[in-house]
Write a structure and sequence with these properties.
By secondary structure, this protein is an alpha+beta fold. It has six helices and eight strands, in the order ββαββαβββααβαα. Strands 2, 3, 5 and 8 form a four-stranded mixed β-sheet that branches. A two-stranded antiparallel sheet has the order 1-7. A two-stranded antiparallel ribbon has the order 4-6. The radius of gyration is 17 Å and the shape is globular.
Length: 190
Amino acid sequence: MPVIKLFRPAYVLILNPDLLILESQVIKLAEILSNNSDVYLSSPLLINNDGSIQNSVRVFPNLFDFLFRILNFKQINYAEKIFNNINAPFVHGACFLFKYKIFNLIGGFDESFFLYCEDLDICRRIIELDKRIIVVPKIECIHKHNRSSRKVFLLFLVHLKSIFIYYKKWGLVHNNKIKIYNTIFINSLK
């Protein structure tokens, strides 16, 4: 009887359907992972259609940050300040690249989240393992960010539910590791 060898992918690429990325860019993201064993996730900068840089690289938010975001208050766009590869606490989930074994190690996506905050949760799990998330600013991808939860009330409610699930899972107050990671990131941009 013949032995069937199952194919195991080397990487897991998570892409939103509204993101444009070249194969050569994905290969560069994979090289970051291959050359750095402590990097669990690599991500490009996300660019709007008009060429402006999206606010896709952030610190872990507290409850007020979410409130300000929901109310559409102006927030610091950390991504505009990134010029070299950098460790980031949290990157928008429109484009993530993982090593396959790492994606399985962290347990993939938590099925409690639907549409929103799943990227926040997965970044949090990586940081809690003392591993790195690298943003590669020389790789820019166009993301036609729709922000549907600001336009459709039902999606707004789904977003609120995801925020609630996130804080139920991780608590309302950041632990010291998250505070330190946020501070190191902000200081590295100065």
